[in-house]
Amino acid sequence: MKVFGVIMAGGRGTRFWPLSTVKMPKQFLGLLPGGTMLQLTADRLAALCGRKNVMVVTGVEYRDLVLRQLPWLSPDNLLLEPVARNTAPCIGWAAAVLNDRGHGESAMLVAPSDHWVEPAREFENTATLALRAAEKGLLVTMGIPPDSPATGYGYIRKGSELLPGVYGVDSFQEKPDATTAGKYLEDGGYFWNAGIFAWRVSEILAAIALHMPELSEGLKQLGGCSEPGVDRFSMLPSESVDVGVMEKAGNAAVVPASFRWSDIGDWPGARDAGVSRGEAVMEDSENVLVYDTTGRLTVVMGLSNVSVVCTENATLVMADSCAQKLRKLSDRLQ
């Protein structure tokens, strides 16, 4: 079965201010060794489907950034959103374009552009298993075995085994409080929802038609257009594919991931993934991230669970407990 890799690269990365800005969001930054977040994601998917079958969905304002970072990407495989409409329209549009090009029975491997995944070989193993399940008509999501009672992720409760290493989905759970997350970890059988998917093009389009008919009709109006006008695209309902499709689908499945993963959704998450930059001296401090692009020495004394981010334009000193509030602050500042 032919495979297309679809990268969702339209995020604004507001929880990574001041490094990430509207003009240069997180996915285009070189936070990790080996390239930008987008480049690393594209390499992972290309290893499974080939470069010519990689597709990127991003904002129209990031056209040049994407083509500069992925000079091998076919311009025909760059889908430009005039306005952000969440993951269901993003994924549905990519599926509609592939279907219009005659690839309805091909598989889609869908991934966000800004996640940390290691090692690449284990990602390939998990993705290969997910694609085999997709060939059987399942809508597959990859589940990350939790190693802590994290409250920042949605959870998946696995059901019975459908195929070797592939499980039905008993339920999707919203981001829990700390007590509930602890119970999930204690009970077992729960996974973090990584937002990485595999399915046949025809299956996801059928599921959208069944569970999101308004979106399905809107996608038909777009046709195979790779740069639609804002008037038509803005009419698509803004909804996540998890809520709009996966939580309602009877053929949803989960494959437990064998790779290490983080969505690096904020600065504390970046610290956990080993992100740092610049020269720093720590005194009586722990769990501190320093990311400095200025070349100056940073000294941290008597602090714990803190991120210190210095750029030419601004300096952020933030307690981990405030990480989720940074989005609103960065919106206001920008």
CATH homologous superfamily heading of the largest domain: Spore Coat Polysaccharide Biosynthesis Protein SpsA, Chain A
Structural class: alpha/beta
CATH architecture of the largest domain: Alpha-Beta Complex
Domain count: the total is 2
Which percent band covers the strand fraction? 25-35%
Kindly report the oligomeric state of this protein.
single chain
Q: How many helices in DSSP terms?
A: 11
Fraction of residues in helix = 25-40%
- Largest sheet: spatial strand order: 6-9-7-8-10
Q: Which stretches are low in confidence, meaning pLDDT under 50 for 5 or more residues running?
A: none
> What radius of gyration results from the CA coordinates?
20 Å
* CATH class division of the largest domain: Alpha Beta
CATH topology of the largest domain: Spore Coat Polysaccharide Biosynthesis Protein SpsA, Chain A
Tell me the overall shape: globular
Major sheet size, sense and barrel closure: 5 strands, mixed, barrel
Q: Mean pLDDT across all residues, rounded?
A: 93
What is the string of helix and strand elements? EHEHEHEEHEEEHEHHHHEEHEEEEEH
Cα(first) to Cα(last) distance is 45 Å
Number of strands: 16
